[in-house]
Structures
1.
Amino acid sequence: MGAAARGAAVLLAREEARAKADGVRACAVSVRARAGAILAANRRDLAAAPHLSPALIDRLTLDEARIEAIAAGLDAVAALPDPVGAVIAAWEQPNGLRFERVRVPLGVVGIIYESRPNVTADAGALCLMAGNAVILRGGSEAAASNAAIHAALVEGLESAGLPAAAIQLVASPDRALVGAMLAAHGLIDVIIPRGGKGLVARVVAEARVPVLAHLDGNNHVYVDAAADPAMAKAIVLDAKMRRTGVCGAMETLLIDRACPDAASLITALLDANCEVRASADLMPLDTRLILASDSDWDTEYLDAITAVILVDGVAGAVDHIARHGSHHTDAIVTADPTAAARFLTEVDSAIVLHNASTQFADGGEFGFGAEIGIATGRLHARGPVALEGLTTYKNIVRGTGQVRG
């Protein structure tokens, strides 16, 4: 598979933007045409997955609307500007040498992911549009769904005259094949893990291939004393309850000790059937509260559960996030521009928001069409990884016979 992907990557690197876009659009057509088969495959996966948590069931479940969203996401990717060949910088030296830094594909990308069959389509389309071949290894719980979506993608590629090996799927559930991908130095240029802590930890520990890590989303919303009460309530409820199983969901609510509306925020969450684990000083506010333990501040629940704690202003919020956050997504709600500026500057996360829900941590919401994942490290790419994050660059130097002598 690696050798086939390498050959496909060479061909894709030569393709014009229109050819790649036509291929992605053909994949979208095929996904729509095969919607019935994809739904049937998804039902088989769901029937075999009663042991999964509600959050994972939500990630796994497909319906007609979600399949249309997958196809629409493919169309959106096809409409994006091609990053390959873009000149990032250009300059000339006094000796007459002219330099250009130009975007080029990464080559062969390996993606290891869990639960979400939509990643099969998103990852395939993004890698293709960026001129890369991709080897996908989804979780066993979504095996049938992934295979059905992959079949649609291959049909689209072939109808557009692009190599089928550009998007390959490791169909076997054998975990040893993950190890084979991690050791495939020379065949795979970068590995992107998308899943729980266990998966990411294994990939980081074992990989002999560079890793672009997507870590857990222990995300925070900080409600400042200067927050508009109605806005704060709307943002907190959306950040936690819109979809509890996505990586952009709020897991900890930080409330300024000077905020006059702490009780109403907590009541709103409880009334929305969210379990609230609170610090000791908040316990008298409502009999439904559960006393938080130290581990709650470090937990990504991916469920209708949140931790809540009072902090001393922006400084307290920044300090709490520094000690417990995962550098994914954190938000401040405030009408004070000074407080907002300090939070946005000092919180070291891939995505920081002012007066907006953390659920906007999504490549589509950024205008990227789709995403491979949210990169939380500091190297190469950070935040939603889309087309530009799937490229690197080379330096092109043009001379007129110069020698160093």
Note: The first strand starts at residue 87 and ends at 92.
2.
Amino acid sequence: MTQTSYLVAHSYVALDHLSDLISELADAESDTRGFVITGDESHLESFSATEALVAKSLKELRELTADNAAQQKRIAALEPLAAAKLAHARKNVELRRQNGLDAAIKMVQSGEGKRLMDRVRELTGQMEAQERSLLKLRADEVEAAAGSARSIIVLGTLFCLVFVSGAGALLTRSLSTQIAAAVQHVQRSSTELQSAANQQAAGAKESSTSMTEITTTISELLATSRQIAESAQRVANVADQTANAAGAGEGTVRGASESIAGIRQQVDLIVNHMLELGRKSQQIGAVLDIVSELAEQTNILAINATIEATGAGEAGKRFGVVADEIRKLADRVAGSTKEIRILIDDVRGAVNTTVMATETGSKAVDAGARQFSEVTAAFRQIASLVATTTEAAREIELSTKQQTTAVEQVNLAISNTAQATRETEASSGQTYQTASQLAGLSRELLRLVQPQAVV
């Protein structure tokens, strides 16, 4: 239809050019006749332009009818006629200019110009008839093509409707079955997810309780360490006073005897504190074992939750992020537990060192008490022992300060662990809420896909 429409337009253009050619030759004849009758040169102003237009129209007609052999033959006969018609007109003009009106009228009356024009009209009429015949033939072709197109469109539309209806029913049945199976799988996954979230919440709650107990124990240990530091500082002060009093005579010796008794009490107190600190360290180690086990269980739950979220596809992506955060928190708890265990081992080592130093000081004090009767001879020895005691007290003070710092670090780590446990508990609640929403969405989707399957 498109090609035929193009050919119809092509024929109309050819008809327009034929009409233009006749009009241009008639204009040339009219201009010549006006000049012959009046002798006015103004009638010839458009003559040259008319000749150019005639040549252009003939050229375009030849191009437009290049696919039609009969039309090409007519154009081949038309071109010399048009040229002869224009040459006759130019000759008539020259004759009017040179010989006057009578000679020009005689040439007009000879009928040569009319004969040429009639032949031109005959040929253009034949070409026009040919083009109009082609137009009628192409119009019939367009009508036939339009009828075929309408039939094809109607039949094709009916076939497409039947095909689309069948395919739609088949796809709907298949998709409904697949979606229902997927929704049931999502429901099972959401149920398992809720169960895992409950277990995780319970574990997080136990971890939070254990962290609270550990924090309390660490706080007591920190207070004990500060007391030990203060006691060690007092021991150092007493030792300094004893060293100064050693060279001041019997009165100073009696004061030194009392100071030594005080030192022995302080040493016993230090020993008691050190033993208590050792027991607290053991308790902390036991609590850390519980925390480490909880961290491992939390990590296992997080891995299982990540696996379930991966199996849930797009719907479990959000839960997968939460499970990954829980696993990271569990890893942080495990790392912090290891650091705490190292610090506790350091504390135990410091306690053992302190106990050994304290026992050494206690033995030195006992030896000084037994030999106190030999006051005069033993002053130097007492001063030396006091100096040793002072050094040990300073070491005790330094160790207790280090121990206090370590306990503060342990306390900070425990606080971070408690915070992580609280975040884990909050994440567990969010996980449970997400699982509940997922279960509700799956039920709603199942009701949309299979209304009869939902009660």
Note: The chain has two domains: 2-160, 183-453.
3.
Amino acid sequence: MFSGFIFDVEGTLVDSVPQNLKSLQDALERFGCSADHDTLHLYSGLDGDQTLQLLLPDAEEKERKDILKAQGEIYERDYLQSVKPFDGVRDVFRALIERGGRIALATDCKGAAFKHYLSVLKVDDLITATACGDDVEHGKPDPRLVGMALWKLGLPGSQSVMIGDTPYDAEAGLEAGTKAAGVLTGGFSAQVLSEAGCFAVAEDLKALLPRIEEGEAKIDAKVPVKRPSIYPRLRSA
């Protein structure tokens, strides 16, 4: 039985993917660049700088930093207040606590956005630890964010599961030594999440909880994990 449950936030606990993608489009346009929604969605949940390395392979580091700074400002100004939590988050967290679990959040977001998410989720009393973009330099799929959450929980990865909405959440968890489970609320398909290594996938958190319980006994750590077919090959950061 898992003791630790590590959750991504954006796209998993709060409905923020459309707003994030639109703010990135707006920021790119400000710098004379463009990308369509479907292309941007391929990289939803991926570390922001790595996303721009893929979108703008000729851009210098300073330009990428300027674009990401602009995106953050646009997101906070124009989109953040429209972000709401998905239904049932508190119920799921309470159920996990009642079965003896400990909960951590592991999210690339930080600052005003993270504070807003915590304020609308209203689950502070159910969370043991948080690891956010203020704690580590690199976002997912880099495993250090999940590793930080594990350290704060005081649990080994073998007793924990990383729950997210993207293949990058799954990879970060697996690389940190956890198992991975996924929800479809971020727009990635069940096939993509399964190929990324998720042993349980469901439409949303409420539906995922029984899938996790059913799958715990079936996990075989020796089964090799495939990368999703859309996984981007990144240049070294």
Note: The two ends are 36 Å apart (CA to CA).
4.
Amino acid sequence: MSHTAHIPSHRKPRRSASKTALRAGVAGGVLSTIAVAGAAGPAQAEPVTQTIEMPTITAGLSTSVAASAQATQAVALDLETQATEDAAAATAAKTAKKAKAEAVRKAEARKKAEAAAEAKAQEAAERASRSAERTTLSASTGSSDSASSSSSSSSSSSSSATGSAASVVAFAQSQVGDAYVSGGTGPNSWDCSGLVQAAFRTVGVDLPRVSQSQSTAGTQVSLDNLQPGDILYWGGAGSAYHVGIYVGGGQFVGAQNSSTGVVQKSLDYDPPSGAVRVL
């Protein structure tokens, strides 16, 4: 016996064709039996093979969402526009109120400045019209001669003035010696137009306050045809810088300046530019 006689072979034995066919037949029979059994079984065991199609709503939904978003955006834009308009209106109202207040303030300041400038201009013009030479001439005149001249002039003028004119002249002469104060309206200090206005007020005549207006308050008369009570002015009619009252006898009374106060002087002392007659 050889050494390899008892060693089993590792190769699988070949199956015969008959066995293979038999096994195939058995398998086919089993599968057929299963198929038949499945067909005969309960209906609920049948597998679901039908596909259910759900309606598509994406297109309609997107249109609705887009419309809603657009409407929301429009509302937001309207609100923003309204807010902007309200803010602009509030700012405009505030600016207008401030501008109005500023305009009122400026108008008041301008009015005060004009009044102050007018008073200063009038005072400066009055002072400028009195030269140093005239001041020296006045100072060189004896006080006794001046007093007697004034007294005689007063008597002469009083006798020639009548009615309302006499009252105006008498009032003006009674203020001689009072102080001159720019803007003064009495009873013990005057400026030129304040004295004239007060004198005419004693006879019920209400004259304007300033020299410029008083120089056109009546009928213009020639300096060669003066009567007691006429208003004398220096400068142009309507732009006069000084006024006084003619009291007769070639004399006038006026609030001249802070140095002389209210005086009665000859027309030669300070020749006027013109005259107006009110009475």
Note: The longest helix spans residues 58-129.
